[in-house]
Design goal:
single chain; alpha+beta; Rossmann fold; OB fold (Dihydrolipoamide Acetyltransferase, E2P); 2 domains; 8 helices; globular
Length: 370
């Protein structure tokens, strides 16, 4: 049963749709990611769930309890929703100690001093900040402040956690550890997390389910591996992945009884499972191939064609190679290279099992499984 249900949610600012008929089912205990570029509507969705924004249309349910309905002019106050929210800037009080910051939501609901002390210490201990309880926020590192903000949310024992880019203020190294901490915390608590980010690495590494938004609309919802391996359309394919997916314009044609894709620099025979494609329906095609699925070699192999090495970028454990193919740029990612130099001519081809074909008119993935 979905823990959070969003039905036909619309929010407008003048003539601009911040949310355009958003529909989501978020299951109990999920770490659900709202992912997208700036201005896509992810934070507006989160604030609507929190009760901080009143939508123009649509409903939001927690289980079988209606908490927001624009049509019925009903909106439950944020404090009545049993949610906890962690903001991008942590929003912890600078004049209070760590103990008082964590205890603050419990004092509002008038718990006894003994119960507050017990819950604050247990929560702080679970996050490894029990020795910091008498410090002020200015005496803490960015990672410690983040844990204080999490502790203040956890101590309330909410039904749903809402997180608005809580790791964006941390440096790159600390973000890696913080992602792991949040995943451990989610597993330990078993509570629904709804997490907003523009960082695809956070989304792919943390989420049980990802919803990708763009211009107030949902482009795709699915598990991280489905989103990555079977993007529904060009936007998702281009947004997910670093370096981004290579996109090559082409047109379908029959040659010796087989379907080929004319890419300009080569006629690429489509793999067997794509031979049933109706070439009369799809004329203009965009071939998508991720950089790790571009294969290079010194010698010609089946279906290979010539390319020239333009740039070599060592990235630590991987190497990005920019190839010039008939005036078009294609990025290839490999683990190691031997005796390859800029300007050298090599052979390249694609992993047939990893090809994506997009209809140029609709931008939809013709073979998407989701």
């Amino acid at each position: 049963m979905p823990n959070v249900k969003i039905r036909n949610l619309v929010k407008k600012y003048g003539d601009i749709y911040a949310l355009d008929k958003i529909n989501l089912d978020i299951d109990d205990g999920e770490l659900f990611i709202l992912l997208g570029p700036s201005g896509c509507g992810k934070t507006t969705t989160l604030f609507s769930i929190a009760g901080l924004i009143k939508p123009d249309q649509g409903e939001i349910w927690f289980g079988d309890q209606l908490i927001t309905s624009a049509e019925r002019n009903y909106i439950e106050r944020p404090q009545e929703r049993n949610i906890a929210m962690v903001f991008q800037d942590y929003a912890i009080y600078p004049h209070m100690t760590v103990f008082k910051n964590i205890a603050f939501p419990l004092q509002i609901i008038n718990l006894s001093r003994e119960e507050i002390k017990k819950r604050v210490f247990e929560t702080a201990k679970s996050l490894g900040i029990e020795k910091l309880l008498e410090r002020k926020p200015k005496q803490l590192s960015g990672g410690q402040r983040q844990r204080v903000a999490l502790a203040r949310a956890i101590v309330r024992e909410p039904n749903v956690f809402l997180m608005d880019e809580p790791l964006s203020n941390l440096d790159a190294k600390l973000r890696v550890f913080a992602r792991a901490e949040l995943k451990r915390l989610h597993k330990k608590l078993g509570i629904t997390f709804i997490y907003v980010t523009h960082d695809q690495i956070e989304a792919l590494s943390m989420g049980t389910t990802i919803a990708i938004l763009n211009n107030g609309k949902i482009e795709q919802v699915g598990e991280p591996d489905v989103i990555y391996n079977s993007p529904k359309n060009l936007f998702v394919a281009g947004f997910i992945g670093s370096p981004p997916m290579n996109m090559l314009d082409g047109s379908l044609k029959k040659e010796n009884g087989s379907l080929h894709l004319d890419l300009g620099f080569t006629d690429y025979k489509l793999p067997n499972d794509m031979q049933k494609l109706n070439e009369g329906k799809y004329k203009e095609i965009i071939l998508g191939i991720r950089p790790e699925d571009v294969l290079i070699s010194k010698e010609a192999v089946n279906k290979s064609f010539r390319a020239t090495i333009d740039i070599i970028e060592p990235m630590g454990r991987e190497i990005e190679i920019h190839l010039d193919v008939g005036g078009k740029s294609i990025i290839c990612v490999v683990r190691k290279i031997e005796n390859l130099e800029i300007g050298e001519e090599i052979y390249m081809t694609f992993n047939d099992k990893k090809i994506h074909l997009f209809d140029k008119n609709t931008e939809e993935n013709i073979f998407a499984i989701n």
